Amino acid sequence: MSRTRTSDVLVIGGGIIGLVTAWRAAQRGLATAVADPEPGGGAAQVAAGMLAAVTELHYGEQTLLGLNLASARRYPDFAAELTEATGHDLGYRRCGTLAVALDADDRAHLRELHALQQQSGLDSQWLSGRECRRLEPMLAPGVRGGLRVDGDHQIDPRRLAGALVAACERAGVVFHRVWAERLAVAGDRATGAVTADGTALAAGQVVLAAGSLSGRLAGVPRDVLPPVRPVKGQVLRLTMPGRHGPFLSRTVRAVVRGSHVYLVPRENGELVVGATSEELGWDTTVTAGGVYELLRDAHELVPGITELPLTETRAGLRPGSPDNAPLLGPTGLEGLLLATGHHRNGVLLTPVTGDALAHALTTGELPEEARPFTPRRFSTATALTEQPA
Ligand code: GLY
């Protein structure tokens, strides 16, 4: 028998982006529901949680940098508010980051990054190899130089996801622990979604925040379907020794022979090593090759990691977009908004996404800082995207 449940806002997808949207919407007095079989799951269960606006800067992504920095600036208050609302410790560590180079090519790459950071008015400091090792004694003797970025911090994404579920519950968000199978459209507006058992989840506005799955929801008209694709990342978790001072005191990262590798040390002794970046569709297999490459590159940076217990290997799917930036806010279909395509920056962009979507849901418009990320910038691209059967 089909039933109907009604809310002001239905968020499809209960990963950190969907949850922060729902939390912020509920705080603004909107009756909000989330559809997801496992709220708090998704890419955040794999992600390392670097808040790396400065060290992950790339040529051609200066507009995205503005949004990344806006979100990084919000993090201290956001984390404090979420902890206050839930009592959860988020593992938010203002530890900074050291990006290092192992050979002449890596050093040239890092010099270019440093120049770009300086042109962009960002804080980063060039260090010799010796200065890098003074900061992080576990670094390999071969480290040839590095960039010290004291403003790139970290949070534990699993704790963040758990806290957002709790915050949503406390704010009165209703969880439908099922997948929305199809967007409901009546005339020329979105009116909710329908689940596998035929339940109609009616809503005044719908936010599609299903991460890498966002481009697959049935019923979304082709010209507003987000051009989001899965980008696989394999990630390892190890345990650092608790004795003899910190194994690493800050995030350490490098490009080794063209591949990014990073080591994120948590206060609780977990060391996260990531990540591959693979265009393999929906595959989430952990492969011997992926683990080998991460361990090989991480070992070149920090030889002592081979002594540590390897406690977890896992792969997740980043929601990649054509310009590596998110799709935020109203679409060409009345009543349908997007919060997806965050690619490598989902954890960093969580605070600003929640604020931007809450603003859009209550005023119909994105705030100034989020306007460049309107999904309408892809209206031609989406028209070319095939709608899945
Ligand atoms: N931001 C790190 C990653 O996507 O691997």
Description:
It catalyses: glycine + O2 + H2O = glyoxylate + H2O2 + NH4(+). Residues 377-389 have a biased composition (Polar residues). InterPro entries: FAD-dep_OxRdtase (IPR006076), FAD/NAD-bd_sf (IPR036188), Gly_oxidase_ThiO (IPR012727). Its EC number is 1.4.3.19. Helices cover 28% and strands 27% of the residues. It is built from eight helices and 18 strands. It has helices at 16-27, 62-86, 104-119, 129-135, 157-170, 288-301, 350-363, 379-384; strands at 4-12, 32-35, 50-51, 97-101, 125-128, 145-149, 153-154, 174-176, 180-186, 189-195, 200-208, 229-239, 251-256, 259-265, 270-274, 310-320, 327-330, 336-340. The strands form three sheets. Strands 1, 2, 8, 9, 10, 11, 17 and 18 form an eight-stranded mixed beta sheet that branches. Helix 1 crosses helix 7 (350-363) and helix 2 packs across helix 5. The model is unreliable at 381-389 (pLDDT under 50). It binds glycine. Residues 50, 56, 233, 274-275, 318, 344 line the site of glycine.
Look at the structure and give the mean pLDDT.
Answer: 95
Give the helix level as a range of percent. 25-40%
CATH topology (fold) name of the largest domain: FAD/NAD(P)-binding domain
Structural class: alpha/beta
**Outline type:** elongated
DSSP helix count?
8
Q: Tell me, what is the CATH class of the largest domain?
A: Alpha Beta
Pfam family, one: DAO
InterPro entries: FAD-dep_OxRdtase, FAD/NAD-bd_sf, Gly_oxidase_ThiO
Catalytic activity: glycine + O2 + H2O = glyoxylate + H2O2 + NH4(+)
Biased composition (Polar residues): 377-389
